[in-house]
TrEMBL record, chain A:
Pathway: Protein modification; protein ubiquitination. InterPro entries: SKP1, SKP1-like, SKP1-like_dim_sf, SKP1/BTB/POZ_sf, Skp1_comp_dimer, Skp1_comp_POZ. Part of a SCF (SKP1-cullin-F-box) protein ligase complex. It comes from Digitaria exilis. SMART domains: Skp1. Residues 23-84 form the SKP1 component POZ domain. Involved in ubiquitination and subsequent proteasomal degradation of target proteins. Together with CUL1, RBX1 and a F-box protein, it forms a SCF E3 ubiquitin ligase complex. The functional specificity of this complex depends on the type of F-box protein. In the SCF complex, it serves as an adapter that links the F-box protein to CUL1. Residues 136-182 form the SKP1 component dimerisation domain. This is SKP1-like protein.
From TrEMBL, chain B:
It comes from the Eukaryota. SUPFAM superfamilies: F-box domain. Pfam families: F-box. It comes from Digitaria exilis. The lineage of its organism: Eukaryota, Viridiplantae, Streptophyta, Embryophyta, Tracheophyta. This is F-box domain-containing protein.
Amino acid sequence: MEVDKGKGEAEETRKVAEADRDTVTLKSSDGKLFEVSKEAAARLSTVLAGMIAGGSIDDNGTDLKQIGSEALENVVDYCNKHANSIPSAALISSSISFNTAPFKEPEEWERKFVDRLSHDALFDLVEAANFLGMERLLDVTCHKISEMMKGKSPDQIREVFNIKNDYTKEELEEIRQELAWAFYDD
Amino acid sequence: METTLVVIPDDALADALRRLPARGLAGARCVCKAWHGIVDDRGLLLPHLLPHSVRGIFINYIDHRRPHLFARPSSAASPKIDAMLSFLPKNDDRRDWWSVMDHCDGLLVFGIKWHSRLCVGNPATRRWTLLPERTERLAGYAGAHLMFEPATSPHYEVILIPAVPKKPRRPLSWKVKKKKKCLPPRQHEIDGPFCLQLLFSSLDDTLLSDEGTQDHGEEEFQPATESAGPVQPCVDEDEDKEPDDLYRLMEWPPSPCQLNVFSSRTGQWEAKSFIRDGDPVGTVEDVRSDLSKQWLGTRHRSSTVYQNRTLYVHCGGSFIMRLSLSNDKYQVINTPQKIGNEKPYLGRLEKDVCFGFFDEGQLQVWILKESHEKIEWVLRYQNDLSSYARYASSLYNNAETPSEESLEWNSDNDDIISVGGEENRGEEFCYILGFHAYKKIVFLADPFGVVAYHMDKSKAQYLGNSRPNCYYHNYSNGIYESFVYTPCMIGALQEDNTDTSTS
């Protein structure tokens, strides 16, 4: 990374003041920097919360090597929007347990937020949210993904998700038979 | 075309899949092997497949040829239920009499073809299995009961519970010949190590002479009707007298108690011995005399609960058999009170085994508390419900009869009645139809108007008329057994019937 030599002193001061700053800087795998509300980052991401509490936040941009700039931009965008929206009590206490938690419906702005994304961007965002431990964002993106699956045949789903059918005809028939009731027409 | 495969972390994909309805999940399993793995390994379908709601009550009516489902409106609910049970194997004989013998977590066992055959079926998946034929008649049994725990396995077992040996009827002269032929060897065997199965098979033959007799089906429904009278000495021959003397003094239930069990794993019947832990009820004679004091319907109605590898069976009488399948032992548990004219029901209330009485407007419900070494009944609920009964009865009398297909209730709205204590007693409920499996609700009938009564809130809701249109009017009209139905999409059943047309 490059830092202007002339700014070295200013940088020192900035570091000292770090504790008082209300934003953190995140750096994507391709080196782009993003600022995000510290409060929102800590609240929405267990990973970032851990880094902030542990003091491992780098002023010059905390390296997030697994996350591309487009996805990180969306993460930061989401966090900042979240910081501006009124956090409902339900949201703060929300925690995902993959088997039992009841689903929390996305709020209107969250719905719009994921709706505008391309499929690829959405899948990247899911990955980023997963990596950063952002349960609420995962909830919202998974909701969107399930919407994309609803009412579609296996063939249509494969097309949307770019999945190769790795079954033989016989295997497929067997799997259908296991739950034959699900394939009856009403 | 070269495609870049989308990579979604498994946890996230599972979370997305989990939001799909059952059909969506079934479809997702067909997308690719990885998705199939996620759906199955994480048990995503289980919440949809396991029983989680009450969809209705299967009812056997007195002197009626078939059972009916008294149910919620079918349009609103999922999965779709074949309420008329038209998926079951077709019988050419249109006059076939059949009934529901038991229900357990979404599976039903039916006595079909005049109760000569047992068939296990699932109205939600429309699958069924005809159990292999047995050599001895089913009529010697008080009940065929299902043991099924879909959360742990799709396999089920059916167990036959023997009826208290009946006093042999005085054989007609033309039947005696037949009996003589088979009696001697059997008596020798009775002298040997005790074999319940043999005792029953010989009894059955003496009771139900042959195929020519008209009412085999009836016989099974009314196992105890003939035991009511005083013991008649059999004067014909010594041989006729001896079997009953043997039974009369025998302790009941016997130990070891040999029961026939069908397992869907093996596809076969197998005799299993259960050793009694504790005292018997008494002698056969004691049990017979106890039964003879009971209301006729009580003697017909057998109810069971199966959970945690333990089967609780009440087949009339003032006792319950608690069969433990894990150690092949059984215990006799006395009912909370001696049963006389009360109408008892053994069922499951939320997670507890419970026993309810209905007598002269009084509802009483006990919960079975089990700890090491000690099993006891705790009175859970007691109230006078005669005012509700009157109200339900007035609604019933004013309502039109539903069509055969629409024995439906509507408990999704809040049409709950709260009735104050008026004085005049008139009508009263006749039966407890069952307990709601997931709420503190008991279903009562008066005899055909059905009411759901919430025990904690002391509120009742009239659900509707459970009398089928095709049930002819007769003084004997009424309800035999009733089973609170909780649909389940699991069950290792062989035959698949997708033909939805009614027979």
